[in-house]
Amino acid sequence: MISIILLILIIPNIVNADFFEDITNKIVDNPKRLSYGVSVADIDQNGKYEFIVTGFGYPNLALTHDNGKLINIANQNVFSDEFRKTIGVAACDVDKDGYEEIYFLNTDTYSGTKKYSDRLIDLDGNKFLDMFEIEKNKEDLNLTAGRSVACVDRKGNGAYGLYVSNYGGPTRFYEIEDKKIKDKSINLNLDKVTGGRAVVSGHILSDRSDIFAANERGANFLLKNNNGVFEDVAFDYRVDDVIQNGRGTALSDILYRGRLDIISGNWQGYHRAYVLQNNQFKDIGSSEFDKPSRIRTIISADFDNDGYDEVFMNNIAEPNKLFRIKKNGVFEEIILETGLETDGFGTGAAVADIDDDGILELLVSRGESKEQPLTLYKAKVDKQRKYLRIKPINKFGAPARGATVTLITNQRKHAKTIDAGSGYLCQMEPVAHYGIRKNEKDFKVEVKWTDGTKNLIKINSLNQAIIVKQK
Amino acid sequence: MKKNLFKLILFFFIIFQLESLAEEKNYHKELITDWSRIFPDQNRNAAGPKFFKYIIDKEITYKDFKEYNKLYCAVSGSLIDPNGEPDFIFVKESKTGKKICGDYYKCCIPCSCDIMKYSEVEKMKHKFSDGLNEFYVFTIKNPCKKKDFPDRVNKDYFCDGEKINNNQVYNLNGRIVIGLLHEGRSCKKEELDFVKSHQVTGRFCELRNSTPLDSLKTGMGDIFIKLAR
C-alpha cells in the first residue's frame, strides 16, 4: 500500500517529463540574429504555409518546409528588407484577390516618430511589391513606432483592414478604399494615442470581428464591432487592466464551451485568463498561471493532440512556461525541460503544422538585446492520437482570418479562432487544429464566418485537413 | 507499526493534495484589477482614503481587511508591493492626545514621516463578515474648506462642497480616514524610544519635518502635506 501511495506522489512528475522535442536542427542556415514577430502564411501562393520571421536589422525570412528541412525562400530585397527593422507581422487578403498580403510593421525607434514606414507586401507574378510604395498609397504612411498588427474584417465582407498598434502615436487602421490604401482610424474613432502592444481580432463579443488591444501605460481596448464601427467597452467588461502593461495575447476557449475568451499576459504583472460571465470578463487564472514574468508571446494551441489546449508562455531572459487547460478552466503546469530556454531572449513565436504531419510545430524567435538563432519544437505525441484540421476559406478564396471554428462532439464544444494576429507581434497559421480526446465521437464542425453566418459540417473521418469554403 | 506509518503517510498525502487545491486569495491582484473602479479618473494622488473606503465597503473578513490595507500607501495613494515591510511608528490619538504605536505600510520612506506628523489616529469599530472588530485608523481633518486645496488632488474624491464626501471616502467623527494602523496599541516607553532612535522614523524624519514645505521636493508626500496640514 505504501508503495502505491509513493507511486501516486511521483506520477505527476513522470507524466510531465519532456513535453517537447527540440527539432531546431531542421532549420537550414540558422545564424544568431535579432528576430521579432512571426506569422504563418502562404507567401508564394503554392498552397503551403511558410513561417515568416521578422528581422530587426536582419533580413525578414520565409521558412518553407522542403524535404524534412525548413529553408528560407525569401530572396527579394523588398521582402527581406533588413534595413527597416521589422518587428510585427500579419497576413491577410486586403485587396480581395484571394491571396494574403503581408504587413510588415517596421520600427526603427521604440516610441514616437520613426524614419521608415511600414510595408504591405503583395505578390505580383513572381515579384513582391510594396503597396505603400505605389504613389497613390503614400498619403497615409505609418511613421509612428509600433508593435503588433492584426487583420480585421470589420464589415464581414472579406475586405480586410489592418489594425496597427502604435506606441506613442495614434493607432492606424488601413483599408483599401477606391483602390487606394487609406488610414480609416479617425473615421472609426480608433486613432487613440497609447503604448500599443498586442492586438487580437475575432468573435469576442459580437457576431462580427471585434478587437482586443493590450496596451502599456494605459488601459486596454476592447472594441466591440457595431456594424463595422467600434465602441471601446473594456471598462464595462473589466478588461481595461489600466495599471498593468500588456504583452502576449491570444483568443482561447478556456472553458471548452464554444466561445472565445481572452488570455492576456502582462509584462512583469499578473497574466490574465479572462472568461466572459454575465457580461463581464472574470480572470480565472490560477496563482501559478498568473505569476508575473517577463512575458512576450502567448500561444493557445493543442500541441500534443490530446484534445486539450496548452498555453505556451514565451518569456524573455526568463524560462518559458507551458500550461494545459483542463476541464472547468483548470490550468495544469507542464514542467518543461526542452523548450525551457532559460537563457533565451524570446521575442516572438508561432505555430503551424509546417510539415503537414498532423502535429503542430512551434517556432520561437529570439533577439532584442542578444543575437540568438531561432528554435523549433514539436510535442512528443503518442502515435495513437488523432487530429482534425479545419481550414476555412472565405468567398474570395483567402484564409478566413477572424472566423471561428467550433468542434462539437460528445465531450466538448471547442471554439478556435482563425488567427487574425495574436501572441505579441505575431500571427498563427489560419487553421483550427484539434487533437482528439479519448473515447470522443459524433464529430461536427461549425464555422462562424466574419459576417456572423454559420455552416455546420458532419465529420466522417479524422486525421485530415478539411477545407471549408464560404458560400 | 506498519498500520500507523500508513496512516501517517495517508494523512500527509491528503494534506498535500488539499493544500495544492486551495487557491490563496491574491489581494494585490484584486486591487490591480479594480484600480480603474477605485480611481475612475486615474488620479490617485493622496488618495489613500479612496482605497480605504473601497476596502471597508467590501463584504470581507477582518483578516481580508487587514491584508488589503497593507497594499496601499495612505499618504501617496500608491499601491505597495505585496512583500513590502512596514515601518514601526507612533501617531497621536485625536481623542486622548496619547501616542499610539503600530505598523504602517508605506510606498517610500518620507511617507512614514508625513503620516506621523500630519495625521492622527482614531479608534474605529466595524462589523466584518466574521464579526465585530475594533482597530486604529489614520485620519486627517476635513480639507474641504481649504483655499489652497492642492490642485493635483481630485477634490471631488474628498469633498461635497465644504463637507466630506461620504460616498467617496470614510467619514469618522468629521475626519477623513486615510488608512489602517496595523497592530495599533498604546505605546510603551521602549517603543517610543525605538521610533525616535530609528534611522528613518527618528533621524530622517526629524530632518524632513524641519524642512520648510516649499523646499520639499520628494513627490507625493508633499501633496499629502498640503492636503492634511
Provide a concise account of the structure shown.
Helix content of chain A is 4%, strand content 43%. Chain A is mainly beta.
How would you characterize the overall build of this protein?
The complex is a heterodimer of chains A (471) and B (229). With 471 residues, chain A is mainly beta. Chain A has helices at residues 2-15, 77-80, and strands at residues 20-22, 35-41, 50-55, 61-66, 69-72, 86-92, 101-106, 119-124, 127-130, 146-152, 161-170, 172-177, 180-183, 193-202, 210-216, 221-226, 229-232, 246-252, 261-266, 272-277, 280-283, 295-301, 310-315, 321-325, 331-334, 346-352, 361-366, 375-379, 387-393, 404-408, 413-417, 432-435, 444-448, 454-458, 464-469. In chain A, a hairpin with a 7-residue loop joins β14 and β15. The longest helix of chain A has 14 residues, at 2-15. The termini of chain A are far apart. Chain B is an alpha+beta fold. Helices cover 39% and strands 22% of the residues of chain B. In chain B, strands 1, 2, 3, 4, 7 and 8 form a six-stranded antiparallel sheet that branches. A two-stranded antiparallel ribbon of chain B has the order 5-6. In chain B, a hairpin with a 6-residue loop joins β1 and β2. In chain B, α6 crosses α9, α6 (109-118) packs parallel to α10 (220-228) and α8 packs across α9 (199-209). The model of chain B has no long low-confidence stretch (mean pLDDT 89). Classes of the chains: A mainly beta (471), B alpha+beta (229). Chain A binds chain B through residues 1-2, 5-6, 8-9, 219, 235, 238, 240-244, 269-270, 283, 286-287, 290, and chain B through 5-6, 9-10, 13, 16, 23-24, 26, 29, 32-33, 35-36, 42, 79.
Mean pLDDT of chain A: 95
Structural class by SSE content of chain B: alpha+beta
Strand content of chain B: 15-25%
Straight-line N-to-C gap of chain B: 71 Å
What general form of chain A does the structure show?
globular
Topology of chain B as a string of helices (H) and strands (E)? HHHHHEEHEEHEEEEHHH
- Arithmetic mean pLDDT of chain B: 89
The structure class of chain A reads: mainly beta
- Cα gyration radius of chain B (Å): 20 Å
Counting H and I runs of at least 4 residues, what is the number of helices of chain A? 2
Put simply, the count of helices of chain B is 10
Low-confidence segments of chain B: none
What kind of sheet is the major sheet of chain B? Answer: 6 strands, antiparallel
Number of strands of chain B: 8
Radius of gyration of chain A: 21 Å
